[in-house]
Every structure is written in C-alpha cells, then in structure tokens.
GMP synthase [glutamine-hydrolyzing] (Nitrososphaera gargensis), 318 residues
Amino acid sequence: EWDMESFIESTIKDIRNQVGKEKVLAAVSGGIDSTTVAALMHKAIGDQLRCVFINHGLLRQDEEKDVVKLFKDQMDIDLIYINAEKQFLGKLKGVTDPEKKRKIIGEEFANVFVDVVKKNGPFQWLAQGTLYPDVIESGVSKGPAAVIKTHHNVGGLPKWLDLKVIEPLRYLYKDEVRKVARLLGVPDDLLKRHPFPGPGLAVRIIGEITPEKTRICKHASKIVEDELKAAGWYDKVWQAYAAVGDDRAVGVLGDERVYGHIIMIRVVESVDAMTADWSRLPYELIERMSSRITNEVEGATWVTYAVSSKPPATIEPQ
Ligand code: XMP
C-alpha cells in the first residue's frame, strides 16, 4: 500500500526537478484527475503553471460554471476559460462511429491547445491527468493490439509544438487519486463527484451527436444524479448517467401519441473502472428516475436500466 503523503512529497520534488524554471500548461476538465494534477502542480511550481479549461459542449449540466467557480473562487488558481462548443459540435456533425468521435474530439482538443499555447505561451510543458488504467487500456505499454477504446487524454499533440508531457498521476488508480486530492485540499463536493470521461457526453450519446440528444442526455443524467443523491446512493456508486441513442418507442402524452427517445439509465459500481458491476438499485428509486425522466425531459418516452457488467460490456456505451 502506497502512502499518499509521501507520494505527494516525492512527486512535488520530482516536478520541481523536472520543470525547473520552465512554464507548464495544464488541461483541466473539472474532473478529479485534472483538478488533482492542477493542485499538485500549483503546489510545486505556483505561477509557473497555467490552467486551461475547454468547454466542448458535451459537459454535464452547468458544469462549465461550476469549474470556473471551483478554480477561481475555491482553489485560487488562475484559469483560461475557452468556450469551443460550436467548433466541436460542428466537427462532430454527422459522425456516428464511436472511435471516430473520440478521434475528432482528441484532434479538436489539440487544435484548441495549439491556439492557447500561441496566445498565452511560450510553454515548455503540458501537464495531463493520465491514470494507470488509461495507460494500460490505451495500449501504451502493450502496443496497438491492446486498444479497447482510445482515450483522448493520452498523447495526440503535434510534435512541432515541442511540449514535453508531464503526467504526475500515471502510476495511480482512481481511489489513490481521491486520497491525494483530499490531502491537497480539493473541495469535498468535487471529490465525491463521479468520474467523467474526457470526451464527455460524446460517449453517452449513441450515434450522431445532435443538439436534441445532447439536451436529453444532460437533463436525464441530471435527474439520475439528483435522485441518487436524494436516496443516499450517489456516494455508493462509481458512475451514473442516462444515455440516449436513436432508438425510439411510442408513448402517450395526454391523448397524444408521441414517438420519443428511449433513455438508458446506467449505474455501476467499481473500484478502478477496469471491471464494473451494475448497481442493484431499489426498484422504487429506478421508478422515480423513470417517471421524472418521462415527465420532465421533453422527447423521452421510455426508460430502460442497463444490467450488463464489465466485462463483457464497458462502462460507457460508446
Ligand atoms: P469504459 O467505457 O472503457 O470506461 O469501461 C472505463 C472508464 O473510463 C472512462 N472513459 C474515459 N475517460 N477519456 C477518459 O478520460 C475517454 O476517452 C474515456 N472513455 C471512457 C469511463 O467513464 C469509465 O470511468
């Protein structure tokens, strides 16, 4: 068992040694991983660190506001906020293949980064919140044959940019990152927040990403989260959301026939995301989520609950 206090101490020393007097740009997403990287780097090198937060339009409801508040008000770390919503959604228009979506998002991230570097640089380093499972699943240590899903936060920047990559969490599992974050004073509500994938709702919207499906996914996921919290279940599960695809089913709204979307609720328990088990939520809780989704989310007529574990399924449908 690795002691996290000594991990922090030795990592801060390593960062100072590696970085020296050079400047570091950190990509932050509002998740635990990148926030912890930012807190760790800030503690090690102070203002030599600049953080950038890119809103790709596929975040959880109100997440962009929460992230800006977290950095500026709660952690007192300078933040460059970039709203690239239109740019990302434009590039994703018409794209249905899950790996293509990831690739496009990865490439757009790189493009936006290049702009940020040009406008705010020079920087010599890029800090990333890559974790041990990302390293393994992206096949970095096993070669391309081991790729399950390409995680956009590993690699992908143009060589000419000449940014060295620093990944202070690359040997940690998620539960260890939480411990490190707590020790660094990252606020509790963020610590308790479920992990969220870099490509965001792109991996929870099956098929093409449209404004309508994005709205449904955000709203229905918010209901799933709120109901879990109200029932005291939120902290017991690893991830929870509502996914939406192109499948439709007939519903009735008053006297009207509505051909609406089928929503899939996915709630899983896990320790490190390498394996996961679907949560045996009480029927009454699933029922409450279901009736709120069909009542409150326009265009949603049916709700299903995903009962596949990982393996053979994965946590995200895309
Ligand atoms: P899967 O769906 O592969 O997900 O079982 C395992 C864990 O990884 C998250 N995930 C990602 N995280 N970039 C990320 O940063 C990605 O491209 C990505 N894809 C999946 C997922 O939410 C789960 O926690």
Notes: Residues 140-147 have pLDDT under 50 and may be disordered.
